[in-house]
Structure to design on (230 residues):
């Protein structure tokens, strides 16, 4: 079984010292950097856009640059993020009329494509695209803010999706499952148990005094006895 990857969200970081934070996250051995882009329309807050991702690229080191677009009409923005150095772009299926076309356009730029599902959005919405995408992002909170509590019912969705991917060879390549929101050392094990491949963690890492320890405790939960009891 492949080890779970940790994607650190910088949403709740101090934006005045991101260069230092990115270095510390790399030292703490996170696998990915998760950039939460919010436009004040698809979700109420505005976070940052492509120019910020572009400016941070030189400080990302070896970390994989994962852009989560929480914006309306993502098709109008993907080009800027590809330009800015995104290596994977996820967009919300609720935010565009032509998701298949957008997946094609992201992939033709030479990077990976993901689709995000809000808590009320069923798996069926993405089912016909599973053979084309690299990642399904299951929101385990309502998008818009870091630091919220994980919605346990979403883990059922993760489980169903895992089962669907594992039992459906017709979808060709199998996309990875990413969970996003409320992932802490207390919930990480349940997310992995449900079938997640990549855990996004924002405040669980950023608000810790010791990033390495925080990352380690997300990974350790994976090895906790409760995971192996059956
Ligand atoms: C929420 C974002 C998440 C969030 C995660 O809209 O998509 O990536 O920053 O933060 P935590 O881990 O604090 O829930
Ligand atoms: Zn996110």
């Amino acid at each position: 079984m492949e080890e779970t990857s940790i994607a650190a969200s910088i949403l709740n970081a101090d934006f005045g010292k991101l260069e230092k934070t990115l270095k510390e996250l790399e030292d703490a051995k996170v696998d990915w950097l998760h950039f939460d882009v919010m436009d004040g329309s698809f979700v109420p807050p505005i976070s940052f856009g492509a120019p910020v991702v572009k400016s941070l690229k030189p400080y990302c080191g070896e970390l994989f640059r994962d852009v989560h677009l929480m914006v309306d009409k993502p098709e109008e923005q993907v080009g800027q993020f590809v330009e800015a150095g995104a290596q994977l772009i996820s967009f919300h299926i609720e935010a565009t009329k032509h998701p298949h076309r957008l997946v094609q356009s992201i992939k033709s730029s030479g990077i990976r494509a993901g689709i995000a599902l809000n808590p009320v959005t069923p798996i069926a919405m993405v089912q016909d695209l599973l053979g084309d995408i690299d990642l399904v992002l299951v929101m385990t909170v309502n998008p818009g803010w870091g630091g919220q509590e994980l919605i346990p019912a979403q883990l059922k969705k993760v489980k169903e999706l895992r089962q669907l991917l594992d039992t459906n060879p017709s979808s060709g390549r199998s996309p990875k499952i990413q969970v996003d929101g409320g992932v802490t050392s207390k919930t990480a094990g349940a997310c992995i148990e449900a079938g997640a491949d990549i855990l996004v963690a924002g405040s669980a890492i950023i608000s810790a005094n010791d990033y390495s320890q925080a990352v380690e405790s997300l990974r350790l939960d994976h090895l906790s006895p409760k995971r192996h009891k059956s």
Summary: Strands lie at 5-9, 32-38, 64-70, 88-92, 112-117, 135-139, 176-180, 198-201. The chain has a mean pLDDT of 94. Residues 9, 34, 36, 68, 180, 200 surround zinc ion (ligand 2) (CB under 6 Å).
